Write the structure tokens for this entry.
Amino acid sequence: MFSCFLAHATDTLVVHNNEAKFLTGRYFSQLEDTYGNKSIQEVLDSKGFHSDNRSSPFIKYADSVLWVRFILRNRTTQPYLPVTISNGIIDAFDMYYVNKSRHIIHFGSTNPFNKTPPHKQISRVIYIPVLPDSSRTVYLRIKSNDSMAIPIRIQSVEVFTRIAAGDKLTIGFFMGIILVMALYNLLLFIIVRDRSYLYYVFYIIFLGLLQFTTRWLGSFYIPINKVAMNSYIVPLTRIFFWYSILLFVYEFLQLKQNLLKRQNHYYYALFILVSLPLFTLLSGKTIITFTLVTVAAVVSSIALIIIGLNLYIRGFKPAKFFMLGWGLFLTTVLVTIARNKGLIHYNNFTANVILYSSAFELVLFSVALADRINFYRKQKDEAQEVTLTIAVENERLITEQNLMLENKVKERTQELIETNKSLSAMIENLKSAQTQLIETEKMASLGQLTAGTAHEINNPINF
């Protein structure tokens, strides 16, 4: 019995002014409610709470409920302590405790006393009422469709205000970059008419929507229930995000020209792989959808890295930008996955590392696409230079042809003149010969007439 007590014993989490602490394994014990049907009274009476050697509470089974128990001591001057949960696919985040009158007090997303409209609920922060210099045993109820680590931070009011302001500034800066880059590349598409810019705009938009939904901003601005948001909007955003990636990379790396026909067929298979979660989502299998999205993301990421490395080795210049941007983005995605699985610690940097890398990647790809404009300009200048050279050469050939034609015309004209002279002389000779012939014929006729006359005269005389 004593060893069992040691196994379940945890330290009291003490929070002072201007201090924030993560709920690590030394402070909490947890209870897995696989079917999510335990009542708070059953949880309070349960002997199944156990310590965990992970750095954060961890939901082992998708679509299950995790109960976390810890003792909180308030050393601040405020009568309550804000408790925040990490961004992710969280369907419920509730807090329970037993007051001095043995009544169960409930705060959270399903609190009936909360007057905020249901579609405005963002169950990311719960204010635990704890009087200064007093303690309280707290039970947290967390539900998710995904198996993941749940970093929980307890802080003083001052620290919470400061961190919240920093988070707002970070996400505002990121969304500003998303808006600027989307409009900039849309303008370039209108000017250049290159589909790479259009697909890049889609990529930017879905990247922004992905962060917008996973950080629970969507449930605040969109009139839809959180569960519906997590079950449909979030997976749909992820699916179309990968569609936009595949389309952009296909155009950006000019894979139709740079890949063999068989390799293009393999690339089309990635579209089929990304489409599989869409069918499971339409059939209502949300958990399988998240699993398939993760598998499609891993396979597609590896395939794109191999393709980019192959083109980079072959000296294709855009592959250099792609390898740098996509390599960094993939690294941060792996860091995020490792963080969600509890393999690395959760802190302010790992919480926002995907934002930092995405912002850098957006700028890098925009520079790469802007470099393509310089490439188009160079091609245009080269084409103009070639056109000018051809025009000059054509002008020279036309001039030479005109000179040759003019010389030939002169030679032909001279020949015709000489021929005309010869023909004129021949005609004169023919005329002279004709005249002589006529005179000769006249004399011959006269001679015949004279001879005939003399003959006629001589005959009577001779008689």
Summary: Confidence is low (pLDDT under 50) at residues 1-7, 110-122. The longest strand covers residues 64-75. DSSP finds eleven helices and twelve strands in the chain. The CA atoms of residues 100 and 389 lie 95 Å apart.
